[in-house]
Design brief:
alpha+beta; about 80 residues; DUF397; 3 strands; 1 helix; DUF397 domain-containing protein; about 15% helix; globular
Length: about 80
């Protein structure tokens, strides 16, 4: 078990197993990857930089983001 998990930590310190690409499309695999942590939080990293920083979110933050995206609240990013 990893002692200290913090926002911006090197993603490699979280290991290489269990990362998933839930939002991968037809872009050749260049996307974000997510890892559900043992304490319920979620780590996000860029697939093209798996050793780069991991952003750590609570489950509530992830649920809020995904719910908002489903409601169209992030559509301004496509304009």
């Amino acid at each position: 078990m990893i002692k200290d998990i913090y926002n911006g930590m090197p993603a490699r310190e979280l290991g290489s197993e269990g990362w998933r690409k839930p939002w991968s499309g037809t872009n050749g695999g260049n996307c974000v990857e997510a890892l559900k942590l043992a304490d319920g939080r979620v780590a996000i990293r860029q697939s093209t930089d798996p050793d780069g920083p991991a952003l750590i979110y609570t489950m509530h933050e992830i649920e809020t983001f995904i719910s908002g995206a489903k409601r169209g609240e992030a559509d301004f990013l496509f304009a």
